Amino acid sequence: FRSAKVDLGSCDAETFECILRDTVGSDYDPVFEIVILVHNAGSLGALNYLANIQDLNAINKFYQLNVSSVIPLTSVFLKIIRGFSTKPKIFVVNISSLCALSPTKSLSLYCSAKAARDMLFKNLALEEGDAIRVLNYAPGPLDNDMQDELRALCEDPEVKEMFTKMKETNQLLPVKTSVEKLILILKENKFESGKHIDFYDY
C-alpha cells in the first residue's frame, strides 16, 4: 500500500506523473485486472449569492482544485495505466452531485464546478468509447464535514434550513452506505458510460 498527500489545487501534469509513478511503484510492472480512478477531492467554495462573490483569486483557486486539476490527473493516470504490459479494465469515477443538474441558491460555485466536471467526464466517455468505463456518481446528501460547513456558512436561509432539517430528521446518508452503493454499481457494471447516476436512482 502506498499513499501520497498533495495539494491538487497546485499540481501540474509533471507533478501528477511523479506522484502516480511513485504510488504504483516504478521498480516493477504491476499486474492488475481492474484499476479505478475516483475523483473525490473537492470543496464548496464561497457559500454566498453570486452577486456577493468578487474575489477573483479565490474563484480561480476554487476552479483549479475542483475542475482544472481533474484533467491532467486523468490524462496522466490513463497514460501510466496504458503503459502496463497487462491491460487492466479501467474505470474513472467522478463524484458528482445533484447540484450538477439543479441550481441551488448560494451554491453557484459548487453547482457550476460539479456541472463542468460531469460534462468533462461525459466527453471522456464519448472519446474513449469501450476503452474505459466512466461514471458520474452523485452520492446523495451525506452526513459529513462538508454538510457541517454548508449548514454553518450558507448565505441563503431557505437552503440552510433545508439541510438543517435533513440533519435533525436523520435524512442525511452515512458515507459508508453511499460508498457501498457505488461499489455495487461498479461491480454490476451495467451503466451507460458517462452517465450521471444518483444514489437514489439505483
- N-to-C SSE series? HEHHEHEHHHE
Strand order of the largest sheet: 1-2-3-4
The quaternary structure here is single chain
- State the helix count: 7
Mean of all residue-level pLDDT scores: 94
CATH class category: Alpha Beta
Query: How far do the termini sit from each other?
Result: 31 Å
The name of the CATH superfamily reads NAD(P)-binding Rossmann-like Domain
**What profile does the largest beta sheet have?**
4 strands, parallel
Radius of gyration: 18 Å
Strand residue percentage: 5-15%
Global morphology: globular
CATH topology: Rossmann fold
Structural class: alpha/beta
Got a strand count?
A: 4
Q: Which residues form runs of ≥5 with pLDDT under 50?
A: none
For this entry, give a set of tags.
11% strand; 202 residues; Rossmann fold; single chain
Structure description:
- It is found in: Cytoplasm.
- Keywords: Cytoplasm, NADP, Oxidoreductase.
- It comes from Armadillidium nasatum.
- One of its GO terms (cellular component) is cytoplasm.
- GO terms for molecular function: sepiapterin reductase (NADP+) activity.
- The chain has 202 residues and is an alpha/beta fold.
- The protein has one domain (13-140, 176-198): Rossmann fold (3-Layer(aba) Sandwich).
- Helices cover 46% and strands 11% of the residues.
- The protein has seven helices and four strands; from the N terminus they run αβααβαβαααβ.
- The chain has helices at residues 13-24, 56-68, 70-81, 108-128, 145-153, 157-168, 175-188, and strands at residues 34-39, 89-95, 133-138, 196-198.
- It has a four-stranded parallel β-sheet with strand order 1-2-3-4, covered by helices on one side.
- Helix 1 crosses helix 3 and helix 2 (56-68) packs parallel to helix 4.
- It starts with 12 loop residues before the first helix and ends with a strand.
- The mean pLDDT is 94.
